[in-house]
Amino acid sequence: MNTQLRRAAVAVAATAMAVSLAACGSAKEAGGNGSGGDDEKKDGPLAIGLLLPEDQTARYENFDKPLIEKRIKELCSDCEISYVNAKEDASTQQQQMNSMITKKVDAIILDAVDAKSIAGSVNKADQAGIPVVAYDRLAEGPISAYTSFDNEQVGKVQGTALLEELGDKAGDGQIVMMNGSPTDPNAAMFKKGAKSVLDGKVKVGKSYDTTGWKPEEANKNMSGAIASLGKENIVGVYSANDGMAGGIITALKSAGVDPLPPVTGQDAELAGVQRIISGDQFMTVYKPFQPEAYAAAEMAVALARGEKPETETTVDSATTKDVPSTLIEPIAVTVDNLKDTVVKDGLYTVEEICTAKYAKACEKAGLK
């Protein structure tokens, strides 16, 4: 097993053991930040709210939701899980948070559409004694716990891989930076990490913050960059995730760019993995979903029971210092190590990746 995955697995196992030993209880009456304590127990089933931000990115419905629900049920078989998806609408998510508070759930797992605008709802939950676990994105307000990946490291992994692939070409042309949504604090950290590697090594001809992480926005922006810079002058593209990479590659192909420059990605989406196999996309960042999802479930159940969750470190948001946190290391994936990462870990089977369209490419890559 990869060292980074092993480290994440150990952290999750330790958290799982701690939560499994806890008696069923509630932080509902604790007040404050909902952290609870040993004298605030509750007999009976718990209610956990799960709020995910959108369904444009395949990971949320295909991986995050089922993994979180699975782990909650393993820890608390009679727990009730209330799931909602905001579909990239911050106002909708605020209403969903308010509904969870009205239902008097025992804990909330929140992946914020807009980390800043949701702060008021997080504060309402805190006042109601409902702890909130920030999942994947660090929402503002009195968050009780947080789990995500080391997001600056994600950007560094992407930037480093792009520079290594460019080699001597790094000084000969320009790259386009297609960053994530300006309302997502993770996007700013990906960008910061990438720029820490890229600045001074390659010229950034165009840089965009992409509304809603939408592939169609990335496609439109990339078309504009090609028209402005000239297709012959673009040697690489930093794309913050796989969905946008798909839109970028479509724009490059439509403009007649051949061969394609290296394009980065993130999330190891199936379509992104298939583009890597076919040679259209250079790399993605694999963020093992299970450790992150399990950590969130374990934090939420622990907090709902009135226990302090097991965490590895603390982080600061714009409003809250020392939020108990577990951060998981990302992994760069190219065609060379795809078999030993996403396939070996069971994210996808060879059959799922190597459909008829990609059969020859898979054979060439040794994926069979």
UniProtKB/TrEMBL annotation:
Keywords: Signal. It comes from Streptomyces pini. It is found in: Cell envelope. It holds the Pfam family Peripla_BP_4. This is D-xylose transport system substrate-binding protein. Residues 1-22 form the signal peptide. One of its GO terms (molecular function) is carbohydrate binding. One of its GO terms (cellular component) is outer membrane-bounded periplasmic space. Residues 48-308 form the Periplasmic binding protein domain. The keyword Signal applies. It comes from the Bacteria. PANTHER family: D-XYLOSE-BINDING PERIPLASMIC PROTEIN (PTHR30036).
